[in-house]
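Weekly puzzle thread! Below is a chain. First person to post its structure in token form gets bragging rights.
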Amino acid sequence: MKVGVPTEIKSDEYRVAITPAGVREMVEHGHEVLIQAGAGVGSAISDERYALQGATIVPDAVTVFAEAEMIIHVKELQASEIAMLRPEQLLFTYLHLAPDPEQTRGLIESGVTAVAYETVEDAAGGLPLLAPMSEVAGKIATQAGAYMLQKPEGGRGILLGGVPGVAAANVMVIGGGVVGMNAAFIAIGMEADVFVFDRSIDRLRDLDVIFGGRCSTVYSTTLAVEEMLPRADLVIGAVLVHGARAPYVVTREQLKLMKPGAVLVDVAIDQGGCFETSHPTTHAEPTFEVEGITHYCVANMPGAVPITSTQALTNATLPYAIALADDGLAGAIERIPGLRPGVNVAAGKVTHPAVAEGVGMEYVPLEDALPLV
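Winning reply:
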């Protein structure tokens, strides 16, 4: 199969969808890998390194999209890229379609089969291709929040870990999954007072053991959140519903409970955001203020550390990409059943129920959209 890797064109996105090691594995499986010239520069990977492992370097995205049978990407495609898709192509990337009906319509009209990293599941129902970027985003969330709490950045002017004789900041993490755990891990390491909220008692028990009792775990209710907001200096939103639009865990009205200059970091912004007042921002302009509260809502947080992120992403996605290239979609699903929920759009239909609900479109089961699958 011809596998194409274009340069990412989303604002401030420096990752690339494959490493030279990934190219080598693809080539050894008999596939041709087309890399757009300069695609790896943001991740410190030269064209020469790709070529040494057997990649064909092509001059532009038009060539990649015209020749490739499968497109491997990092972030959701931009409108100019969607316009180059063909019905017979496979697209394998992060999509985050639930809050994005415009992108969804574009993929439907293209006829492409679109497999989303974030809804591929493992045998236990986990999200193995979302996990590595969730780990990165969770750690960045605390770092970014700590920085934004500085007075010159519009924050309260509080040091996350305090110093002897001066209390540490209170960090509230809403959601105890991969993002929340990593955010809490860094906050604990920075010696903040950390409170992790979740609706799963079992998950809270796990986190209590993982962190050795070094943070407080709180069963998440509306009242519990409202009681903590006045004390919180930094709130990290880390909630996720597989494939669906994120639920609001902090409303505009509840912002009035918070201290002026407190910081919200919305890691769920790719899925529409978990704070009512959130909207996507970029690394170039990462924050905005509502009701005196700083909001950090960068939609591609891991893009800020592309050397780490590109390697972590390829480590996770490569076995699935090879399966798709080796066996096609139907064969890959037979080989790795967790790929089935990854198919969000196929043959002009929305094939994931949570995505269909999020964008207000009809849900069509994959086997009805593509009878051979």
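Puzzle host: Confirmed. Bonus trivia for everyone else. Residues 306-335 form the longest helix (30 residues).
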